């Protein structure tokens, strides 16, 4: 009976120990509770626990003299110690002090330098899985007998149950913490998105995003850097929270070459860098060092990307040292993504407002432009050289059809003028031609401008808008610089050309149109197709009837006619009275190179008209030796015994006027008008006096 009561007491003691161990929150407190249990039952045992995690290195928890727990983590010693034997045998390892010291001398020095009586290493098993070792040493000289070993094996089982419970609880706690962290992160992203997505100006956007970042991350120095139209400059928007909730906001234009943000704009990667006051890239950070004096500041620069394009940089400083690491840095990168959407929307809204404000003026201008065009076939096309004559024949041939036309030629050759001529000669001339320059339109707005958009298609789309294709219904659409059209938009253009139908941005309704396309480019589309920069199927669809416009260098015979036309038009526009172009000026214009073609010639003539002091055209000084033409030289009459002095004076006067008018006799700018004579009267006098106008101009 006494043995039965002893057995029951042992079982109760083991059960109480199990409950105590289950209540512990860590391996350290569990080991302290276990040693306290042996102290309470007056057992001369000292316990240590070696936890062998499947994912982590083994760790030995050892009690110290002051009651604290020391963690020994030298994996090589632990793995080559008793753990290896127990892992193989899955049985108790029983050694005396001398045997332990002989087998494991390094462990003796590191862990158990003090002598002990006896040593047990009992495997901690749970569902046949080895979780670690329970190491027990005796403080007396006794030996563990079989009953004690059996009792301690029960204790090891209790430790195994407690360890399993502890690991499960820690795993659940870790997962719960992760879920809470993810919930908080989503909460931050939702709040940031709601705060910035409705902002329509960059200034208010920076203010909102800075307040949200400061609130959730505790970052005090927040800046947004955006590139300017000039690639050499950047615009920096700063918000510094010197006092909580009251940011100091500044804007400044900085040089891209001396800004640390330029590195991120070029690389598109996150940059974390320590910046000192004497760093060359710290010249734009004087406000940061003035508000927070320090030997260095850690800066985190995150690219603001949208649709694969770097729109700007989010620059952060004055934060906790762990803020720019791990999950916090990933969350800040997600905040930058939301900021990118808001920045793109703000810029798009500003551009839409600008286009909307100019829409009435643009339509008015286009209407006036169409109404002012003469109904003659080629009134805007000056010149009768062989090169231009061949082009005009092609224009007449293709104009009366509906096939697509591709105008090819250098910049300034007058592609738009020929496009208008094709439209005027076509059956669609009753409606005005719609134009669009693909290179001048921002990539984000090009699709909306071409195909229109529905109300609410994007931020700022407060009402539906007709696109250029709908405006050009039953008319002609002229797409200038079609080679600069983004690759992702080309399939939609191809579909319109093939099927004559499309969908507006943000809509799902098919819209049918009847549009004749005239495209123009100064780029080599064939080479672009080979370089995968232009779709081959779109190229073949545009290249139905290509027309190459000759550069001005191939039509030098037309330069005098073009120069006279531009002089007349510029003089009328500027209120000048330029009615004469010296022949040597025309020869000089014909001999010059014209890389800018007709547009360059027109600009030179307009400048010459502006700089000419009299009624004779003088070229600008930078164009060479003919810039200051002298008065037309007098041609002295040859002595003639039969010519009187009065006839000599008349001879010289006619010669002078013919040189001033470049040999023109009739018309408002002719010599007859200047002399106050009829054309026939002047011609008869020239014949009587022996004047040949061709020899006068030599």
From TrEMBL:
<keyword id="KW-0804">Transcription</keyword>
<keyword id="KW-0547">Nucleotide-binding</keyword>
<dbReference type="Pfam" id="PF13185">
    <property type="entry name" value="GAF_2"/>
</dbReference>
<dbReference type="Pfam" id="PF01590">
    <property type="entry name" value="GAF"/>
</dbReference>
<dbReference type="Pfam" id="PF00158">
    <property type="entry name" value="Sigma54_activat"/>
</dbReference>
<dbReference type="InterPro" id="IPR027417">
    <property type="entry name" value="P-loop_NTPase"/>
</dbReference>
<dbReference type="InterPro" id="IPR025662">
    <property type="entry name" value="Sigma_54_int_dom_ATP-bd_1"/>
</dbReference>
<feature type="region of interest" description="Disordered">
    <location>
        <begin position="621"/>
        <end position="648"/>
    </location>
</feature>
<dbReference type="InterPro" id="IPR025944">
    <property type="entry name" value="Sigma_54_int_dom_CS"/>
</dbReference>
<feature type="compositionally biased region" description="Pro residues">
    <location>
        <begin position="630"/>
        <end position="640"/>
    </location>
</feature>
<dbReference type="Pfam" id="PF25601">
    <property type="entry name" value="AAA_lid_14"/>
</dbReference>
<keyword id="KW-0805">Transcription regulation</keyword>
<keyword id="KW-0238">DNA-binding</keyword>
<dbReference type="InterPro" id="IPR029016">
    <property type="entry name" value="GAF-like_dom_sf"/>
</dbReference>
<dbReference type="InterPro" id="IPR003593">
    <property type="entry name" value="AAA+_ATPase"/>
</dbReference>
<dbReference type="InterPro" id="IPR009057">
    <property type="entry name" value="Homeodomain-like_sf"/>
</dbReference>
<feature type="domain" description="Sigma-54 factor interaction">
    <location>
        <begin position="381"/>
        <end position="610"/>
    </location>
</feature>
<protein>
    <submittedName>
        <fullName>Formate hydrogenlyase transcriptional activator FlhA</fullName>
    </submittedName>
</protein>
<dbReference type="InterPro" id="IPR003018">
    <property type="entry name" value="GAF"/>
</dbReference>
<dbReference type="InterPro" id="IPR002078">
    <property type="entry name" value="Sigma_54_int"/>
</dbReference>
<dbReference type="InterPro" id="IPR058031">
    <property type="entry name" value="AAA_lid_NorR"/>
</dbReference>
<keyword id="KW-0067">ATP-binding</keyword>
């Amino acid at each position: 009976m006494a043995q039965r009561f002893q057995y029951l007491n042992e079982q109760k003691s083991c059960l109480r120990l199990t409950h105590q161990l289950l209540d512990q929150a860590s391996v350290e407190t569990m080991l302290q509770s276990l040693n306290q249990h042996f102290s309470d039952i007056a057992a001369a045992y000292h316990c240590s626990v070696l936890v062998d995690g499947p994912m982590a290195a083994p760790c030995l928890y050892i009690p110290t003299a002051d009651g604290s727990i020391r963690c020994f983590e030298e994996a090589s010693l632990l793995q080559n110690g008793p753990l290896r034997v127990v892992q193989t045998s899955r049985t108790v390892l029983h050694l005396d002090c001398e045997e332990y010291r002989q087998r494991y001398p390094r462990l003796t020095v590191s862990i158990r330098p003090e002598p002990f009586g006896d040593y047990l290493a009992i495997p901690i098993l749970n569902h046949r899985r080895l979780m670690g070792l329970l190491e027990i040493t005796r403080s007396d000289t006794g030996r563990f007998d079989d009953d004690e070993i059996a009792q301690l094996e029960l204790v090891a089982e209790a430790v195994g149950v407690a360890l399993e419970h502890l690991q499960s609880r820690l795993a659940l706690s870790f997962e719960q913490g992760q879920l809470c962290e993810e919930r908080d992160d989503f909460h931050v992203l939702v709040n940031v998105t709601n705060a910035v997505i409705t902002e329509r100006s960059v200034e208010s956007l920076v203010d909102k995003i800075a307040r949200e970042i400061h609130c959730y991350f505790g970052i005090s120095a927040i800046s947004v850097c955006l590139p300017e139209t000039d690639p050499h400059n950047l615009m920096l928007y700063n918000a510094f929270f010197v006092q909580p909730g009251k940011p100091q906001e500044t804007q400044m234009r900085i040089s891209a070459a001396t800004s640390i943000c330029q590195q991120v704009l070029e690389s598109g990667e996150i940059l974390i860098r320590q910046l000192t006051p004497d760093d060359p890239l710290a010249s734009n950070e004087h406000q940061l060092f003035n508000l927070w004096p320090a030997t260095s500041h850690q800066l985190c620069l995150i690219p603001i990307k949208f649709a694969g394009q770097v729109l700007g940089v989010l620059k952060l400083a004055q934060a906790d040292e762990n803020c720019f690491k791990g999950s916090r840095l990933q969350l800040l990168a997600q905040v930058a993504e939301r900021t990118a959407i808001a920045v793109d929307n703000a810029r798009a809204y500003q551009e839409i407002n600008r286009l909307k404000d100019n829409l009435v003026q643009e339509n008015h201008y286009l209407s006036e432009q169409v109404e002012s065009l003469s109904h003659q076939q080629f009134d805007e096309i000056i010149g009768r050289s062989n090169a231009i004559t061949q082009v005009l024949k092609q224009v007449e041939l293709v104009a009366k059809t509906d096939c697509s036309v591709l105008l090819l030629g250098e910049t300034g050759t007058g592609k738009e003028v020929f496009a208008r001529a094709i439209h005027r000669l076509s059956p669609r001339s009753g409606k005005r031609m719609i134009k669009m320059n693909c290179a001048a339109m921002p990539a984000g707005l090009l699709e909306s401008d071409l195909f229109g958009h529905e109300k609410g298609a994007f931020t700022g789309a407060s009402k539906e808008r007709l696109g250029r294709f709908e405006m050009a219904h039953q008319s002609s659409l002229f797409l200038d610089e079609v080679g600069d059209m983004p690759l992702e938009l080309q399939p939609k253009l191809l579909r319109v050309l093939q099927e004559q139908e499309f969908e507006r941005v943000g809509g799902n309704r098919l819209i049918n149109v009847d549009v004749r396309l005239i495209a123009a480019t100064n780029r080599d589309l064939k080479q672009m197709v080979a370089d995968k920069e232009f779709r081959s199927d779109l190229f073949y669809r545009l290249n139905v009837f290509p027309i190459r416009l000759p550069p001005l260098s191939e039509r030098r015979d037309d330069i005098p006619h073009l120069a006279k036309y531009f002089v007349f038009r510029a003089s009328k526009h500027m209120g000048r009275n330029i009615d004469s172009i010296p022949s040597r000026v025309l020869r000089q214009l014909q001999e010059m190179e014209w890389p800018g073609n007709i547009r360059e010639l027109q600009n030179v003539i307009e400048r010459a008209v502006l700089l000419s002091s009299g009624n004779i055209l003088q070229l600008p000084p930078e164009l060479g030796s003919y810039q200051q033409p002298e008065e037309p030289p007098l041609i002295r009459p040859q002595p003639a015994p039969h010519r009187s002095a009065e006839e000599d004076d008349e001879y010289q006067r006619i010669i002078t006027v013919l040189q001033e008018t470049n040999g023109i006799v009739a018309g408002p700018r002719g010599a007859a008008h200047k002399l106050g004579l009829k054309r026939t009267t002047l011609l008869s006098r020239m014949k009587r006096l022996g004047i040949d106008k061709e020899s006068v101009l030599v």
